[in-house]
Amino acid sequence: MPKLCQSCGMSLGEEKELYGTEEDGSYSADYCIYCYRDGDFTADITLEEMVNSCLPFILQAHPDMAPAKARAIMTAVLSGLKRWKK
Q1: Helices and strands (DSSP H and E) totals, the chain
Q2: Is there a domain that residue 84 lies in?
Q3: Does residue 8 lie in a domain region?
Q4: Could you give the CA distance from residue 8 to residue 50 in angstroms, rounded to a whole number?
Q5: For the chain, how many structural domains are there in total?
Q6: pLDDT at position 86, please?
Q7: Rounded to an integer, what distance in angstroms lies between the CA atom of residue 2 and that of residue 13?
Q8: Is residue 41 part of a domain?
């Protein structure tokens, strides 16, 4: 299974330039550069707001998917990630 950002679910792979950074400048093991920089999240948003933010990218990658189905999948996937687990 590919390594995913534990905030937005983006596939990280081995490309270090996609990884966020910790306060000391080291790469984050869990988050992408879009979600996490300098040891903090780049946006103070809710899970629902993150789903809304990511939805256009999912629909672009899967144009035949119904928006409601994409939203349901995103909500299920993201709610299981480290940032959103309760």
Answers
A1: 2, 4
A2: no
A3: no
A4: 7
A5: 1
A6: 74
A7: 6
A8: yes
Domain extent, residue 30, equals: 16-79
Q: Which amino acid is at 26?
A: S
pLDDT, tens digit (0-9, with 9 covering 90-100), for 1-50: 569 999 999 999 888 889 999 999 999 999 999 999 999 999 999 999 99
21-53 exposure pattern, b = at least 16 Cβ within 10 A, e = fewer:
bbeeeebbebbbbebbbeeeeeeeeebeebbee
> What's the rounded Cα separation, in Å, for the pair 8 and 84?
10
Task: Tell me whether residue 11 is in a domain.
Answer: no
Nearest to 34 by CA among 83, 79, 72, 68: 83
Q: pLDDT digits over 66-76, tens only?
A: 999 999 999 99
- Residue 70's pLDDT is 96
